[in-house]
Specification:
331 residues, Ferritin, 3 domains, 79% helix
């Protein structure tokens, strides 16, 4: 019972057992560093060989392996420093039940690294010991990178699972090429690819806007013409505007013609009087048709039912539009 209580309270931490685990982790880290350095050197040689063969595009893809291996080596350096720090301050961990502020970065960094390094079993054992000592909440905060987690920003970047960007790969590739006196010949291609991607993005955005506009127009049309009477009213207003524009254009064209054709002898009328008479006739016809359309709209309230009044309004509007078209043809 006492051992279980000590385990729950985190009081079963023993420095004499934790130090050998730290030393074993340092030995494992040395092996992993040697293996990773060998892999990084091999990847670097592959990139150099591709550059010498003028396969610059393939070298740009292969350099991603170099970046990942180099990031792992940089992370191993930080982990080694954390292990050495805990090895020196093991007594401090034993004396305090909460993580000391001066060791918070080291402890949080090892917890975070254990969740990212699957080939480091000793580090997972250290994670279990530290979780028992400082609680699951402290471990979750470090692993999930919550606020005030204490994990070093550089360690986050080195152990990130994101793919290297094109700019990063270009920088590393240029560095390898400059160290070996090789001139890169593919500077234009990545930019052209980026332009194609940007162009396709702009085209997709334009298509999206066009589709959105079409949907808005369709929905607006459905909302505006929700019944027959509204549609007839809208058609009437549109036809009235078109008729007014046509009459204005006709009058303007007649004013430009001027008195080109003289009146017949004995007729007693001038071109100006004839134009004024035609204008008066058009206005009287339009006025008459407007009255007929109004009578048709009033049929909505005078009919025997709602459907009859609505049909009367629609027929009045359609009748006005047909006669207005005839007037325009006569003009």
């Amino acid at each position: 019972m006492g051992r279980k209580l000590d385990a729950l309270l985190g009081r079963n931490f023993r420095a004499s057992k934790f130090r050998p685990l730290l030393n074993l982790s340092l030995s494992r880290l040395s092996i992993l560093t040697s293996q990773r350095r060998l892999r990084c050197s091999q990847a670097n040689s592959d990139v150099l060989q591709l550059l010498q063969l003028s396969h610059h595009h393939r070298a740009l893809l292969r350099v991603e392996k170099v970046i990942k291996d180099q990031n792992a080596l940089d992370a191993y350096v930080l982990i080694e420093g954390y292990l050495n720090l805990l090895l020196e301050r093991t007594t401090l961990l034993e004396q305090q039940s909460e993580c000391p502020e001066e060791l918070k970065e080291a402890v949080a960094g090892l917890l975070f690294a254990a969740s990212r390094c699957g080939d480091f079993p000793e580090l997972h054992e250290i994670k279990s010991v530290l979780t028992t000592r400082f609680g699951k909440e402290f471990t979750a905060r470090a692993v999930e990178l919550r606020n005030n987690c204490g994990v070093n920003l550089s360690l986050m970047q080195k152990l990130s699972t994101r793919q290297p960007t094109l700019e990063t790969r270009m920088e590393v590739l240029k560095s390898i090429a400059s160290e070996n006196g090789i001139v890169l010949q593919f500077d234009q291609l990545p930019h052209s690819n980026e332009e194609k991607v940007a162009r396709s993005g702009r085209q997709s955005e334009a298509e999206g806007r066009s589709e959105k506009f079409s949907n808005e127009v369709a929905s607006d049309s459905k909302k505006r013409y929700k019944d027959v009477a509204d549609a007839a009213q809208a058609a009437f207003e549109s036809a009235a505007q078109a008729a007014a524009a046509a009459r204005a254009a006709m009058e303007l064209s007649r004013s430009h013609e001027g008195p080109s054709s003289p009146s017949k002898p004995g007729s007693g009328t001038t071109p100006h009087d004839k134009q004024k008479k035609e204008k008066t006739e058009v206005e009287s016809k339009v006025k008459q048709e407007m009255e007929e359309y109004g009578n048709g709209r009033r049929g909505e309230g005078e009919g025997e039912g709602e459907g009859e009044g609505e049909e009367g309004g629609k027929m009045g509007g359609m009748k006005w539009m047909r006669r207005e078209l005839q007037i325009l043809k006569m003009g």
